Amino acid sequence: MNFNHYMLKNLKVLVFIVITNFSANAQLPPVFGNSYIGKFNQSQMVKTYLTPQKIIWMSDSTGNYIQNVQSLLKKGNGQVGVNDKNLCRLISKDEHKPSIILDYGKEINGGVKIQMGIRPDKSPLKLRLRFGESVGETMSDVGDKKNATNEHSLRDFVVEVPWLGSIEVGETGFRFLRIDVVEDGENAPIKSIDAAFVYRDIPYLGSFESNDDRLNDIWRTGAYTVHLNMQNYLWDGIKRDRLVWVGDMHPEVMTINTVFGENDVVKKSLDLARDQYPLPNWMNGISSYSMWWLLIQKSWYDYHGDLSYLKEQESYMIGLLNQLSTFINKESEETLNGNRFLDWPTSEDPIAIHAGLQALMVLTFEAGSDMMGILGHEDLQIKYYKISKKLKRHVPKGNTSKQASALMALAGLKDPKQVSSEVLLKDGVHHMSTFYGYYILQALAKAGDYEEALDVIRKYWGGMLDLGATTFWEDFDISNVPNSERIDQLPSSNKFDIHGDFGKYCYVGYRGSLCHGWASGPTPWLTHYVLGIQVSDGGNTIKIAPHLGDLKWVKGTFPTKYGILKVYHEKGLAGEVKTTIEAPEGLNILK
């Protein structure tokens, strides 16, 4: 699947601009037409101008203050002129200052370019801009009761648009934009208000398609969510949390492995974290995030077999594993210090935190043992394996959280089938989290509950799509859905605002991010377990082990170090699965 088949479907593109590393060979994705401008060697970052798709709301419908507004929805030429005709006009008087809300169709990263035509008054036009991941956010004021902010990225500010010219501003995550004329006595001819979309120009090498369109949409939405966060570094969110959070990276990296293959943004971000937090510091100040760094390193090698990169991490890995080994007491319990954190929903539950950290310690030392074997350190391989076995002697009691229970099942501390029936599938998709949802799905697979996992994906991640999501959210509580308005509609007095009325911890109200890479778990999960692509041996070997559940057929592609693997599974009348494989030369396939 090419980048724009999903990401820019139906969006109108005005101009394509290369930010860095320009050459004359790169073809634009199909939605842009047949012309082409640039190819990118390192940063891969490009900027595209998008025409808004619809007018969500405007303050005036009489034609007295807002005129010819539909012209903003027409693709322009990107250049103002003295003879431009039929422009949108924003006319302000004492009694009314016009405003409109535009919808660009999908969540994007970037800003906006506003062009103004000629008028008698040559002074700049003052406009207030309010970017929003939801319509409700564009209607908010910074610091209001629904917690709208300008933190991490400015989303509410005033700009001046020059006479017969343009201005480009903004660097945030948004889908919607509200524009208000600030001063009275204005009569401004606006030629265009186009989104300046900044993204990494890379192909979607992996794909997933089945007879269930809902699952297909969920797979693509997870892929797109991570793609938006593949900026200069791998961020967790494009509006808020434009930072490298190492634990949050794990689901993102698994999505990148599945969709885009090897990309240097991963190594660059892992190295940044390593260098920002020299030992004995924990990455991001969180002990579990240092463990996630090691687990990402293991997964990265499993998929790509980059031994030279693994060797670059050798001394830090050994130092970190040795440091972690000092936080185990005589009873084989983890005693980690620093910020003891799994995810936000468990942050006030010390029993869950201990259970999760104990499991993560087991998984980390198992991964560390494997990596030491790859690096040729047999003594350390044995040492870290023995530590993992020691940690398994202690099985935490009293935990009832789905997040920690999933980790315990994955670490072999509890029986996966028992965990699935007693905890994970209890209360349906209530008490889930978007971050640890990935590990809940993995634990369900380990229990053999593939059909149940598909149902979880449809209800939980599909629930966000039902509310207008085009990317997956930092937090989602299914209990908030009843009587809640979609994010692409104006908030109403008789319904809840799903974005502004809910949220806890760092994601209260509109501060909450509606594009968070840690929520992309269904994308790698569907490829790994349903399409059945299981990678090992440094990317040299792939075992095909599909689990279609209630699906009739599934097909997809997967990026390997040898090229693209194509797989198709179809269920027969008796439930048998017929598989067709097209593998690149050199790749070892096991069935």
From TrEMBL:
Q: Which residues form the signal peptide?
A: 1-26
Question: What Pfam families does the record point to?
Answer: Bac_rhamnosid6H
Keyword Signal attributed: yes
Q: Which residues form the Alpha-L-rhamnosidase six-hairpin glycosidase domain?
A: 205-487
List UniProt keywords, sorted A-Z: Signal
Q: Which PANTHER family match?
A: ALPHA-L-RHAMNOSIDASE SIX-HAIRPIN GLYCOSIDASE DOMAIN-CONTAINING PROTEIN, C, PUTATIVE (AFU_ORTHOLOGUE AFUA_3G02880)-RELATED
Name of the protein in question = Alpha-L-rhamnosidase six-hairpin glycosidase domain-containing protein
Organism annotation = Gaetbulibacter aestuarii
Its ancestry begins with: Bacteria, Pseudomonadati, Bacteroidota, Flavobacteriia, Flavobacteriales
